[in-house]
Design a protein that fits this description.
The chain has 784 residues and is mainly alpha-helical. The chain contains 36 helices and 8 strands. Strand 1 and strand 2 (333-335) form a beta hairpin. It comes from Chelydra serpentina.
Amino acid sequence: MFWKFDLNTTSHVDKLLDKEDVTLHELMDEDDILQECKAQNRKLLDFICQQHCMEELVSLITHEPPVDMDEKVRFKYPNTACELLTSDVPQINDKLGGDETLLNILYDFLDHEPPLNPLLASFFSKTIGNLIARKTEQVIAFLRKKDQFISLVLKHIDTSAMMDLLLRLISCVEPAPLRQEVLNWLNEAKVIQRLVELIQWSQDEDRQSNASQTLCDIIRLSRDQGNQLQEISEPDPLLTALESQECVEQLLKNMFDGDQTENCIVNGTQILLTLLETRRSGVEGLMDSFSQGFERSYTVNSSILHGIEPRLKDFHQLLLNPPKKTSILTTIGVLEEPLGNARLHGARLIAALLHTNTPSINYELCRLNTMDLLLDLFFKYTWNNFLHFQVELCIAAILLHSVHEGKSATNDLENKEEVLNGNVTTENLKTPDHSPENIMVTHLFQKCCLLQRILDAWEVNDKIQAEGGMRRGNMGHLTRIANAVVQNMEKGPMQTQTSEFIKELPEDCRGRWESFVEETLRETNRKNTVDLVSTHHLHSSSEDEDIESAFPNELSLQQAFSEYQIQQMTANFVDQFGFNDEEFADQDDNINAPFDRIAEINFNIDADDDSPNASLFEACCNERIQHKRSPVNSKPPAPCVAMDVGSSVWDSAAPETATPEEKGWAKFTDFQPFCCSESGPRCSSPVDTESSDSEGNPKQGQDKNFSAASPCVWNVCVARKAPLVASDSSSSGGSDSEEEEDKADIVTETISTGSGQETIKLTVDAKNEKAVFTRCDRKQLGMG
């Protein structure tokens, strides 16, 4: 036992605290100080919460350590100080959150000139964030009194810790009314507009990137909390500002007016893509089909689309003339003019806009011929699968457009080709006179010549492969596009219009397409659906198949286990498995217990019914007996041998007399295993072993007495009937002093063999539950 050896020693922190001149650094050198603090060691907390100790802890996380210190231990004390301040101990939280002097020391960290030390900035952000969550009202009131707080945070936005602090103010404030006050405060400070202004070509890349990420996170957080807190009628002011047309227009102005840089365009496009998000997806650009029912869909505000529409020409121009990039070396060689991240994000934005199925935007894209330009890039950059995927999404969106003008794209995207961020619902917009859906599909098949370009690209690829070249990298997406067209012809919202376009193709082109669909595309789909690895065992045995078929599938197992878990344990639960309480009791108290259940075993033998094997059995016995007959004298009979066969075969109480009756007698010919077989007479009695040779064949002495009328060794098998005698399990335990009762319980039946010189005597002792067979000759029985 541990306490026997006094191993439960006190912490070394307590020993240090007993010293009068102990310092904070000495305590922080101890490894278990955090454990003792979280365990709320009273002496330690009282020491830490002293004013000078708290000030020293806050100073450690807000001031740079001396430069001449060893780098390995330079940030040891600031890290430990941050862990102590954020240990979520109420006494420390109350002291830090309620003391304005300490909060001012903490706040002064923002006055440092950029760039901030990223590690110290993370300590500061973590400490302030913990106070916002635990001492919300006090800290929010303190920060709102600081007029420069928002400006200082945005000043240091290039440090990611400041971005985290800003998001904590938006997401970690409770209750809801106080959160709404914070949002209004941030909106009055024009946080959104000031973040948008940071996305300009003149700003540092880190500042642009963090500002863009902050705005994207604000959009997602605001939408999620708006769905969760539906009882609040007041809209989120930050989200409203972000979705306004003015904000979108200002963002696009910063992206395209002036010098265009790839970083600015990419960061600004990411914000637009987030605004166009209608459903959060697990995989970028693809919906998770297993969680569609659990995702929340959002409505795209028409102001966003109105703000983007005038700038579609800038995105089209971006696809034509992107920011200059130097050539890069790839695995397939040197790429002189890379596609670039800016053009890739432009393609992503076009795909997202097409999925909104907005008539005015569809019309503008047709006017600009943007889809034709995207197809040109698709076939030019044959190894850029990121681009191929976005072009595929654009074509899928066009093919899934509804023929009903103004209908939302929600129902259109229920098709299995549904892609790109999910469903979009837009408000009714003013559209041109033409049907935008028809214009877009017409543009795709007639102006862009989609089918002809698919056929030409396929032929070029086949030619390259025939010459020993590599298969082009866009062939997989090209196959999916061709399948989408074929499926839309068979079933789809634009089925009729697509079929008409194909019929209007020139005869040679239509023939090529039909041949391509029936032969080339079908063979390609067949190859693509072949399992790369067989799901069956290469060398399966019958045992393996039996094992696999013996077990249900996993779903059935889970269902069965669930049903087993929810069943109730009732009083008769054990009885359901065929047991009762008596069988679990001590059997020593009841001597009859072992026989109680045996007495319930019933053998129903009807002596009047002939067994179907009786005639065959008798014929077999006669044949064997005729073959074994011999004049040799039999061996002198063996002395009487008794054998206890037990009492388990008896069913009912023994009758008072042994008078033979026809009804209820057993026909011994039915018991073939105990009589004759191909090897001759068989018996389990020791008598039989003495009268047979080592091979189990009957000796000649016995064969001498066999007669033709006797089909077996014993006439009893076919001619003699013995009474069915059973023991009464309740007879045991009777008085041994009454001799007459003992004799009445013993029944003897004599059975003679065919020759009459040998007799089998059956003695049944019902009281002792024993049956004894005895074989004796006539002299032993006193018959002369």
